[in-house]
Amino acid sequence: MNGKKFLVVATGGVLGLLSVYLVKMGNPANMGYCIACFLRDIGGGLGFHRAETVLYMRPEIFGLITGAFLAALVTKEHKAVGGSSPLLRFFLAFAGMVGMLVFLGCPVRAVLRLAGGDLNAGVGILGLIAGVFIGIQFLNRGFSLGRATAQSSVNGYIFPLTAIILLLIVLSGAVVFFASKTGPGSMHAPVLVSAAAGLAVGVLAQRSRFCMIGGLRDFILFKDTHLLWGFFALLIFALAGNLAVGAFKIGFAGQPIAHSDGLWNFMGMLLAGVSVCLLGGCPLRQIIAASEGNTDCAVTIIGFIAGAAFAHNFGLAASPKGVPVAGQAATVIGIVLVLIIGFAGAYRTSAASGGVKLGQNG
């Protein structure tokens, strides 16, 4: 195993083990490290939505950004770039987050749920793979969000420095933000433990270019298993950790912070899969790239948070009771709109390159 592949495996393994440890220390079960759920909680902590059970400024996210930012600075890989379809990225992230909250988790949590024995997550992962496969068809036909260009260096520091300031406020213990008294938002590991876990994953993910969607995409496109090793390492190490601490419970029913509606588990993650494939990376990868100075990815993170706030403000998000009708409708509408974006992007690129018909490779 070469050094680059070892880093990917190490990132997945550390992420898996830390996720189990964070649950033991207080995080919600099978949610040791869910990027979508934690961004949603942060949106609530900032007052963007008022769903009383999911409000908390998750230190894991701020630690993740800080770790990636510091690693990029040390290795001289921090570079301010942007200007590549920011509004389109915002919308794709918005729609993808709605899908993830219908499923109840991001690609990382889907694997963590499966590692905890939640077979509903297996259905969601099938939907994720289907979504990535659909997204790849658009990429093969020329869909592109464009190339980011160099920007003034100050642009690349706004996102990570904002996160560091928020982390320092959280670490100080100041009562500034909204916080849940019941529900998942009230369940969390000690602040220092969470921040340290985030910092460790941030450094490793920055160095390894870890990406859940990238692994699936590259395997389907090129039969390249480099990033896919991280996907499996996360599953195996989290599974081993859950077995070691007695947290493994296999089945569909009664799983923590999950529902057993197979259709909407599949459809929610299908929407997420198409969206993040067109975006070029999973929520974790988007955070790492934003920490490296990519302002387009910072806009993507804002899109995720806005999507989460919208989903909770308007009753779209699922709960252990199931998926509300509004959430089902939003998922279908989201899939249609994202497919339109994919077709339109592929058609525009094909036409610009000489009028190739839609559906053919350019």
UniProtKB/TrEMBL annotation:
<dbReference type="Pfam" id="PF04143">
    <property type="entry name" value="Sulf_transp"/>
</dbReference>
<keyword id="KW-0472">Membrane</keyword>
<feature type="transmembrane region" description="Helical">
    <location>
        <begin position="226"/>
        <end position="251"/>
    </location>
</feature>
<feature type="transmembrane region" description="Helical">
    <location>
        <begin position="325"/>
        <end position="347"/>
    </location>
</feature>
<keyword id="KW-0812">Transmembrane</keyword>
<feature type="transmembrane region" description="Helical">
    <location>
        <begin position="55"/>
        <end position="75"/>
    </location>
</feature>
<feature type="transmembrane region" description="Helical">
    <location>
        <begin position="6"/>
        <end position="23"/>
    </location>
</feature>
<dbReference type="InterPro" id="IPR026366">
    <property type="entry name" value="Seleno_YedE"/>
</dbReference>
<feature type="transmembrane region" description="Helical">
    <location>
        <begin position="263"/>
        <end position="285"/>
    </location>
</feature>
<keyword id="KW-1133">Transmembrane helix</keyword>
<feature type="transmembrane region" description="Helical">
    <location>
        <begin position="297"/>
        <end position="319"/>
    </location>
</feature>
<feature type="transmembrane region" description="Helical">
    <location>
        <begin position="185"/>
        <end position="205"/>
    </location>
</feature>
<feature type="transmembrane region" description="Helical">
    <location>
        <begin position="87"/>
        <end position="112"/>
    </location>
</feature>
<protein>
    <submittedName>
        <fullName>Glutamate synthase large chain</fullName>
    </submittedName>
</protein>
<feature type="transmembrane region" description="Helical">
    <location>
        <begin position="157"/>
        <end position="179"/>
    </location>
</feature>
<dbReference type="InterPro" id="IPR007272">
    <property type="entry name" value="Sulf_transp_TsuA/YedE"/>
</dbReference>
<feature type="transmembrane region" description="Helical">
    <location>
        <begin position="118"/>
        <end position="136"/>
    </location>
</feature>
